[in-house]
Structure formats: C-alpha cells, structure tokens
C-alpha cells in the first residue's frame, strides 16, 4: 500500500488530477512477474480523461521515466513499473518504523457495534460460540485499529424457559452454593441436564419449571434473586475464560436486559400498523420480503428471542447511534436476522445497510479427550496441554518451567484461534488437533514460530535494528529482498479489506504469505555473518517484517512469541 500510495501520488501529480482512489484501485500485479513490480491498468482513468488507454499508458511512461527510482514501460493499455530494491525498501520501512498507525478515519469518527460470543447460560458454550468469540474479537480489534469507535456487546442468552428448569433443580437438589460460586457455567448446565432428564419421566417437574419461569417473568423477588446469582456466577466464569483469550466486552447486556423493553418495541411496531393477531399469536407479516412472519408473542402472551432482538436493535440505535451494527452469529440464524431487518425496514427505520449479519459456518470434528466439546475452558486446557507435550518432545531447545507454561499457553490458544480464522468464515471447517498445532502447516503456531525465528536472528546479531533515511538500504538488491518489502507494503490495504469484508481470514492468509516470503528470503540471503552495512540493512528489513507479523497476529488475537 505504501508503494501504491506513492505511485498514485506521482501519477496524480504528473497528470494534474485528483483521482487517488481510482488510481490505487487500478494498480495490480503485472500479467507476467518479470514485467515489473506493479502494473497500472489505464482503462478507467483514460475513459474519465477522454483518452485512449494506450495513449494514456504511453504518456505516463514518458512522464514517469524522468524519475530515477523506477522504470516505467507501457505495454498496450498497461503501464508496468519496476522499482529499485533499495528505493522500495526505504519507502516501506520508513512507514513501518516511523508511521506505524493507519491514517485517522474520516470525521466524525464512525461507530461500530459488534455483538459477539453471546453464549447461553445453562447451555454448553458450543463451538459456534467459540467461532463467534474469535471472529468477533478480531473484528473488534481491526476496527479499533482503523480508528473506529467500537462497542463490543455480549448478548448473553440469560433469559428463557430453561431457567425454570434450573431453578427447579436448584430447589429440589438442595441449593449448592459452593458449586455455583466455583463454576456457575458448569453447575447451571449440569442442573439443567439432570432436571430436564427427570422431567421426561415426571410431569410434575415440568409444571414446577413452568411455575418458576412464570414467577421469574412476574418479577417474584425470590426467583429473581436466585436467577441473578446464576447469572452473576456464570458471567464471572465466562470472564475468566475470555481473559485467557485476551478478550473483553464493553457490555454484558443479554436478553434479560430487554425483558422490560419488549412492550415498547411491540408498541412501536403496532403504531406503524404492522402487527396482527394470528391464531392467538402476535406477528408481523413479511410476505412482501418473501419471508415467513416474525413472531412477537406466543398465544400465552410470552415474548420470544426475536421480540427481544427488535428491542435490542432499537436500544442500540438509540444509545450508540452506530454506523454499523454487526452480529457475529452462525449461518443457522440467517432467517432470524433477515426477518428482524425486514420488520424494521417496514417500520421505516433505515437499517438495511447498517445491520450486518456476519455469519459463519460450522466447525466439524472438534472434541476433547473427555468427549465432544462442552466447555470452552476444557478446550483451551486441552490445547495448552497438547502444545506442552509437543514442546517437551522437542529436545533441541530447553525451556525453564515458567517459559514452558507461558509458551505452551500462548501456542495452544494461538492454534485454536488461528484455526477459526484461517479460512473464509462462511465455510465449514474441519478441525484436527495435529494440524492446528503443527509448527509447519497453515497454523497459528507456524506464524508464532516465524516471529520467534526473526527475533532469534536479531538476538544473534547483537545489534538493534533501526531505520535511518539515507541509510544502508541501498545495499539491498536481491529479488527476495524486494519481494519481502513488497509483501510488507500490502499490510494497510489488507487490514482495510478485512474490515470492509468483515473477514479476519484476509489477514490470516496475508500473514501466511508474509511468513513464507520471509522464509524464501532467509533461505537465500544470509543475515548474521554478512558484512556490516549489508547486515544493518537486512536487519532493518527483517525487523520491518517482524513488526508487521506481530501487528497482524495481535489483531487476530494471537500472541507473537519471542522464543518457541
Ligand atoms: N445466544 C444466541 C445463541 O446462542 C446468540 C445471540 C446472538 N446475538 C443476538 N443479538 N441475537 O444462539
């Protein structure tokens, strides 16, 4: 990008125009790699300037070739440009070392609300929630990095009939406050499962569960008090687990938060004349959108997930005035979000471009040694244990106890996180422990290892890499050096693309490419042991690569390691 910005500026200046964006969008890789480093596709600009593309390419060739730093050659409607390696390295590394943050976003600062993770209390934290957590947190960091105001919301499933079951179990089994306080998530889940199981044989239990939920809905103080404790201790446990992943939320406003806001939401739709009663149920017809009706109230008068969703959208629009409302939720809820968006659109709220369902596919085959995955904590533990085993097998490096614990924890988590982010989110992914933890394949540990390797080269050199303007970078003239600088140059564009497409995997793919470009460089270019000026130049280049790799990993939620 640094390179593209630079070229675009030159082209604009030489033609005396202001079309940076269009020029940048038409800078592409040359048809044949040996034709140059970048090609400018002239069609669009030519048509704007009322010129023939071939003529524009030729005239640009003449104008730009007054420049020493590169060669421009017109080939039909394309202008192929070849830079000197030293020049490219200077341009790119100057940015990386001296201007590491992206330019500020447009004023006023845009706001994005991201709804992610959002597990259900008393149900297992499934792999779907893991994906939502990891993808959502990456988007959170990406938008923050780009200068957006970001609000992360955990829309917990903390309300609903399953709490009737839990409260019944709690009452019947004798209130086990120790278990509740230790791990609210596991305890409420196990209570739920046991009571649900009993209820299958005993109708009385079902009745009692319904009673408890009714009490809850009526605001009965005892019911509310117990429910609050379950919620509180579940959140406490969730927070501990999120902390292991380095994730925080700005708000834990789950479904229960909207229980008293549903009347207002229904009112709003009623006033717009959108609701009707059908077989005792309150619905919004969405025939004109080719969608089934949205259900707002069951015949017994109780509200639903969708009712609370409408209330939540209205609340978020009102409270945060967002430019974007992202919902990082799996594919199966596609219809739900289409209905929500359609109903609000029908009510005259301009929501279509704002409300984005950032959907994702399934993870297949993810289980721990204890069985199919139920709790996120167990999954993380297993990843860390497996990472540790791998490190212990490796006899070539010795680690202190503390190092071992730290590294295996970061490698295990890196493996899990990257597994979720390495392919386009819409695709189903096949999970495999060995592949996720492999130090060679397309994995988090592979990237962490690439980072550690650069660190180790720099340590061996006993020098501090630095960038100086008139520097030794002119020493660099190998194609692998240029390739590495060009790869680093793409970073800002990649981050923007990831944000535009709500797709962290754009960054994952890029980092894999960057690491492999580095490997090729290191394979053919010696660093430690080169003569002093070349050593200094190459150290600067690999440090630029390291900084970029580290930033990319951080955005994904993976710790760049210094030793592995
Ligand atoms: N708790 C829901 C589930 O597990 C996900 C909630 C997603 N967020 C939302 N605003 N609907 O299915």
Give the gist of this structure.
Helix content is 56%, strand content 10%.
Cofactors and ligands: arginine
What's the β-strand tally?
A: 15
Shape: flat
- Strand count, sense and closure of the main sheet? 4 strands, antiparallel
CATH architecture of the domain at 410-425 and 433-556: Orthogonal Bundle
Q: CATH fold name of the domain at 410-425 and 433-556, please?
A: Isoleucyl-tRNA Synthetase, Domain 1
Class per helix and strand makeup:
alpha/beta
Mean pLDDT: 93
Parts with pLDDT < 50 across at least 5 consecutive residues: none
- End-to-end separation: 31 Å
Care to describe what's here?
With 564 residues, this protein is α/β, with parallel strands linked by helices. Among the domains are: 2-83, Arginyl tRNA synthetase N-terminal domain (Gyrase A, domain 2, 2-Layer Sandwich); 410-425 and 433-556, Isoleucyl-tRNA Synthetase, Domain 1 (Orthogonal Bundle), CATH 1.10.730. It is built from 22 helices and 15 strands. It has a 4-stranded antiparallel β-sheet. A 4-stranded parallel β-sheet has the order 6-5-10-11, sandwiched between helices. Strands 7-8-9 form a 3-stranded antiparallel β-sheet. Helix 7 crosses helix 9 and helix 19 (479-489) runs antiparallel to helix 21 (505-524). The longest helix has 25 residues, at 532-556. It is flat. The mean pLDDT is 93.
